[in-house]
């Protein structure tokens, strides 16, 4: 593999992280690092701690801070607690502050776990006054995400993969410094530096869709097309450029057609391109923090068609979101009790 061709994987990893997220952008600001205890997040934590150190000749330490945050989903009993303890020990070793959270009720579905974990990390970042939330998604995670979206019937936006950076709100930005780095480089770098990590046994459970993609589907694809993951990564980069253009047009469309947010009301537009309208609706969806896990491309297209037509309509979308079209306006939201 091209990543592993050099003699020093650890220096390769540091170089990739520094190129992806130059230290001068964040060393004097607050950064919360989401750390599970696995190889990717442990390598990111070590890399950021190393890159934050004063360079040769510098005498003034950086003004910012790194804070490690871990969310315990409590799915694997003692093993989950051991994950948490390993993150606490890692933080102590690097002389970094650490915050841990625990799920009140263990949940095993991917969407609920992801939502609970992200909410915890955002809360920690806000309480600490951090500017950035750094997550350890890798290039392999991006490939798995795109394949997962594709098989769920996603539209073009889903093929843009995981975005980075992304504003959570006006004060917090989510970054993924490892998004261009292959997973195997992180593991090689940790081995090279003699750094241990935790392996989550649930990552081998093929009942989770992403695990099946990782352990079954991708190996089959790469047995025929060895460079498939790299090719998908290049395609994702192209789709992301497309998405940026569409998002700008969608924001302009909202400026002209959004009547109000409470309740979410839009003016109909028979001339709008469906791709632009769908992107606009998805922006509002994110702003309202509505679940998107069961929304497929056919659902987004249904709403776009409602906005471009004239007849009165009323129907429900996944998660109980109701669409009501009357005259020249469409209202989208949770039904009144």
Summarize the entry for a quick read.
With 337 residues, this protein is an alpha/beta fold. Helices cover 46% and strands 15% of the residues.
Task: Provide structural commentary.
The protein starts with 8 loop residues before the first helix and ends with a strand. The strands form two sheets. The chain has a six-stranded mixed β-sheet with strand order 3-2-1-4-6-5, with helices on both faces. It has a five-stranded antiparallel β-sheet with strand order 7-8-11-10-9. The chain is α/β, with parallel strands linked by helices. A hairpin with a 5-residue loop joins strand 9 (313-316) and strand 10. The radius of gyration is 22 Å and the shape is globular. The protein is 46% helix and 15% strand. It contains ten helices and eleven strands. Residues 1-5 have low confidence and may be disordered. 33% of the residues are buried.
Helix content: 40-55%
**Class by helix and strand content?**
alpha/beta
Radius of gyration: 22 Å
Outline type: globular
Number of E-state strands: 11
Number of helices: 10
Strand content: 5-15%
Q: What summary fits the major beta sheet?
A: 6 strands, mixed
Distance between the termini: 57 Å
| Order of SSEs | HEHEHEHEHEEHHHEEHHEEE
Q: What value does the average pLDDT take? A: 90
Strand arrangement within the widest β-sheet reads 3-2-1-4-6-5
Show unreliable segments.
Answer: 1-5
